[in-house]
Design brief:
- The complex is a heterodimer of chains A (581) and B (210).
- Helix content of chain A is 37%, strand content 15%.
- Chain A contains 19 helices and 15 strands.
- In chain A, β3 and β4 form a beta hairpin.
- Chain B is α+β, with helices and mostly antiparallel strands and 210 residues long.
- Chain B is built from seven helices and seven strands; from the N terminus they run ααββαββαββαβαα.
- Chain B folds into two domains: 59 residues, no CATH class; 124 residues, 2-Layer Sandwich (Alpha-Beta Plaits).
- Classes of the chains: A alpha+beta (581), B alpha+beta (210).
- At the A-B interface, α6, α9, α10 and α11 of A face α1, α3, β3, β4 and α4 of B.
Chain lengths: 581, 210
């Protein structure tokens, strides 16, 4: 077992005395950087201190103090804890903060999201368009003074349900019984539908012109999706083509947007738990895990010993089934209709049977609670987990490898097809198997261990070519490592209580902030929660790995053929529930 | 040799294909039915399953584990004269903890005194909004609201269940969740015993004083 890379506490305030101050609010940590010097400090962090991976960018709205805050979390890919730094701007339009896109390119989509939802303008961002809401949307939904169409109350529980008990549907409150909000002064006669000029301009701007311009060719724009069978849901990608070559590409998302962050801020802490299931609906256990450890950090409560092991077992089982689905669905995208996919689904069914017996639902598990889990694993289910881990899953993984790995057609398609190299991956904040297949052994279970992962003996799966075949094989490696962890966890699991706290539906969370992250099968899943001591979070933000991994899609696809686009997209292993949130 | 990998892969497919029929023959020789029997379904969702995997819904159904949850119902105990005694005391914890806020409860007031009575007058759950998280059942202090196993409830209208439609007898609860039912009964008995013991103790403690 290797210890996580040791890091001395970085005193940024000493390095930049006039520019940086320590965040002294109770429960908060990190540094506050003057926004004029943000780029300078960020560059120093990246180049001098080695914080090469920007994890999150998000905004927090403080209308009472008349300011907006942008929070950044940066980490080192060699491991260890990260650094939090913030910058503040007055809450007077236009709210402007310099963009960090030239320091960390991974800030691209996240800054666009912050602009879209919070209305913070990032000056210097080359393509600051709305990303989750549509062009022409009125307002910025995550601001505290923005109310949705059927707004009832600031926080749940709503008084109409309890104690009043009014039996009334939301749409009956509205005179027209529809879900529409018009901006003030809206005149339907004058209304001009928004066009998507901005998108196509941006597509043209980032276009790479073909070098040998002997033959003058016209480029064409193709919209893949939102209803395309291979975009894994409702992702739309505007692609500019020169012949068959992709010259420019922009993902368009938000078709499944439900403003998970805002829903979270309405809910009490416990009520968010089932909503996290619906982010990455293949891995609800991993989503629960991340949220639970974040709130436990805020509450400063321990987790019951047995529950830690149960959590690890569930998280690793979900990783196995996610990677199996990845392999099956990749083959589907490559045109092998359904045989490998259904072989993968067989094993997944057996794992979901376990989730169903333990948590009560196959996909929407809602199994974790603060301080532990809901219920213990029954003996017969434990036996089934043992059978699967010891007998069935290793054999079936072998069979899957025998079935596919040496297939000449598959190898011809995948080998040597470049996805990302290490530098591109880190620059774009790509995490998860894609990053590790590019040769960066960055796995949170090792780099910044959470829960009881430091007690298990396993290797971080890593491959070095960064081509599609490596991206495909690394999933098998990870399945094997997960099975290794599972074997140890099943052996070591102690008896005892499964929750360190009494079951309670209203938890007390002291004021402060916390950023918790777990290695979800898709990448680094982070939760940023700000509490003000009330029953519901003041700010709740999800760092969705699928969403941020999509930043690299443009880099991956430019210059490649359109036929490879679907396979390259499959490599990122996105889930729209998480991308759009 | 080019094509060796493909042949190797196809041998896996062939193996899987033949296993289905092999298993069928084995089951047939043993005089057992592999399809349309609970035994067959159980085998197909066990770790020993080989070959074809499909469960032919609705003729066959997967065996639901006890903890499976799908939409809540209200438990009533059957009284002496067949009267429904709802366990619900309309305390409102379920309505408060419900994440999508789909529970509405109207409390009962005593017509004479105007004081609240621990029984719901109306109880609505909007099943279209319900996200089957199971919080209401988990945090109910009286085991009055329980998650159901019946999952095929699709209809053409909105599914707003009222008290009448939500109520199911305790015997049904025992049938779908025997272990949980037993646990609840044991807890209740233990609580009553503790209460009685406490009453006894206080009675005996009070006795010498008087």
């Amino acid at each position: 077992m290797t210890a996580p890379a040791s890091t001395q506490i970085l005193d940024l305030a000493a390095r930049f005395p006039d520019v940086v101050s320590t965040d002294a609010r109770p429960g908060f940590s990190g540094f506050i950087v003057k926004k004029e010097n943000l780029v300078e400090v960020a560059t120093a962090l990246r180049d001098e201190f080695g914080y090469d991976l920007l994890s999150t960018v998000t905004g927090v709205d403080y209308p009472a103090e008349n300011k907006m805050e942008v929070v950044y979390h940066a980490f080192r890919t060699i491991g260890g804890p990260g650094i939090v730094f913030k910058t503040q701007a007055d809450r007077v339009e236009p709210i402007e903060v310099p963009s960090l896109i030239n320091v960390w390119h991974g800030a691209d989509f996240q800054e666009r999201e912050t602009w879209d939802l919070m209305g913070i303008k990032f000056t210097g961002h080359p393509d600051l368009r709305r990303i989750l809401m549509w062009e022409g949307f009125e307002g910025h939904p995550l601001r505290k003074d923005w109310k949705e169409a059927f707004f009832e109350e600031e926080t749940k529980p709503f008084k109409s349900r309890w104690p009043e008990g009014n039996h009334l549907y939301a749409e009956f409150r509205n005179p027209y019984r529809d879900n529409l909000n018009f901006p003030s002064g809206f005149d339907p006669e004058q209304y001009q539908p928004q066009t998507e000029d901005q998108l196509y301009f941006s597509l043209e701007r980032s276009s790479i012109k073909p070098k040998d311009a002997d033959l003058k060719t016209d480029s064409i724009v193709v919209n893949m999706g939102p209803h395309h069978p291979s975009t894994h849901g409702v992702l739309r990608v505007a692609v500019e083509l020169d012949g068959e070559t992709v010259t420019s590409l922009k993902p368009v998302m938000g078709y499944l947007h439900r403003n998970h962050d805002k829903i979270g801020e309405r809910n009490t802490y416990l009520q968010i738990m089932p909503y996290t299931d619906r982010l990455d609906y293949f891995n609800s256990m991993a989503n629960n895990f991340g949220y639970a450890i974040t709130v436990e950090k805020l509450m400063k409560i321990p987790v019951a010993e047995r529950a830690e092991y149960i959590r690890v077992i569930m998280a690793e089982l979900t990783r196995v089934q996610n990677h199996l689905i990845f392999i099956g669905m990749l083959l589907n995208d490559l045109g092998t209709l359904y045989t490998p996919a259904l072989y993968a689904f067989e094993e997944r069914e057996l794992i979901l049977d376990i989730f169903e017996a333990v948590a009560g639902a196959r996909m929407m598990c809602n199994y974790f609670r603060f301080g532990g889990v809901v219920r213990d694993i029954p003996d017969d289910v434990m036996q089934k987990i043992k059978d699967l881990v010891h007998d069935r899953l290793p054999a079936k993984t072998d069979e899957m490898e025998r079935f596919l790995n040496e297939n000449e057609v598959l190898m011809a398609r995948l080998k040597g097809m470049h996805v990302l190299n290490a530098e591109e991956a880190v620059r774009n904040s790509v995490t998860g198997p894609c990053l590790r297949a590019a040769g960066v052994p960055y796995d949170l279970r090792r780099a910044d261990p959470y829960s009881v992962y430091d007690r298990f003996d396993f290797d971080v799966a890593v491959r070095y070519n960064g081509d599609m075949y490596d991206n495909y094989l690394i999933r098998f490696d990870e399945i094997r490592q997960s099975l290794r962890i599972l074997e140890q966890a099943i052996k070591q699991i102690p008896q005892g209580p499964i929750n360190s706290q009494k079951p309670q539906y209203q938890v007390r969370v002291p004021a402060g902030e916390a950023y918790g992250r777990v290695e979800s099968p898709k990448g680094e899943l982070g939760y940023y929660v700000v509490s003000n001591g009330k029953p519901n979070p003041y700010r709740y933000h999800v760092r969705a790995p699928s969403f941020i991994n999509l930043t690299a899609l443009e880099t991956m696809c430019k210059g490649n053929k359109i036929a490879d686009f679907v396979a390259l997209l499959a490599m990122l292993d996105i889930v729209m529930g998480e991308v759009d949130r | 040799m080019y094509g060796k990998g493909i042949l190797k892969g196809l041998s896996v497919t062939l193996k899987r294909f033949s296993e289905t029929y092999l298993d069928d023959i084995v089951w047939w020789l043993r005089g057992k039915k592999r399809y349309y029997t609970p035994e067959g379904v159980a085998h197909r969702s066990s770790k020993n399953t080989r070959g074809i995997f499909t469960v032919q819904y609705p003729e066959e159904q997967l065996i639901t584990p006890e903890e499976f949850r799908y939409v809540p119902f209200l438990v009533y105990d059957e009284g002496a004269d067949g009267k429904r005694e709802h366990r619900c005391t309309s305390c409102g914890i379920c309505a408060k903890v419900c994440p999508p806020q789909c529970i509405w409860i109207v409390r009962t007031n005593d017509p004479n005194t105007g004081k609240p009575v621990p029984e719901p007058k109306e109880f609505y759950i909007d099943m279209d909004i319900c996200m089957n998280c199971g919080f209401c059942a988990e945090y109910c202090p009286f085991d009055a609201i329980i998650m159901d196993h019946n999952f095929d409830i699709a209809s053409y209208d909105r599914n707003v269940y009222n008290l009448e439609k939500l109520s199911k007898p305790a015997s049904y609860y025992r049938q779908i969740r025997p272990l949980n039912y037993q646990k609840n009964e044991d807890e209740r008995k233990a609580k009553e015993a503790a209460k009685a013991a406490k009453a006894d103790a206080s009675a005996s403690a009070a006795a010498p004083a008087t």
